[in-house]
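#data-curation
PF: Archiving a pair of folding outputs for the training set. Convention for this channel: one message per protein, sequence first, C-alpha cells after, nothing in between. First:
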Amino acid sequence: MSRGDFSIQSIPTKVVIDKNGNIRYKISGAETDQNKLLEEMNIMIESVK
C-alpha cells in the first residue's frame, strides 16, 4: 500500500503508517477485547519501526 490509499470501507479502520508515509497495515472492524487490540497494534507498530 502507498500514500493516499485510504479508501476506508468500514468504521472503525485501523491504519499504521511507516516513517516514509506508506500505509503498512489497514484493518477494518472492531475488536472488543481491549488487551487483544493493544497487543495487535503494538505488534504492527513495532514491525514498522
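PF: Second:
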Amino acid sequence: MKYLVIIEETSTGYSAYSPNLGVCVTTGATIEEVRKAIEEAIEFHLEGFKK
C-alpha cells in the first residue's frame, strides 16, 4: 500500500508526515534521513493498528 508523505524544510532540517495516518510525524537533518525515518514511522504506526 502507498501513503502520501509531505516533506517540509524547517529552520533545523526537515520534517515529514503522512496526512492519511494522522499523527505519523518525524524529523531529520537531511532529506535522506527524514525519508528513512518516515518509512520506519509508517511501519511502526501500521504495526500498532494490527495490535
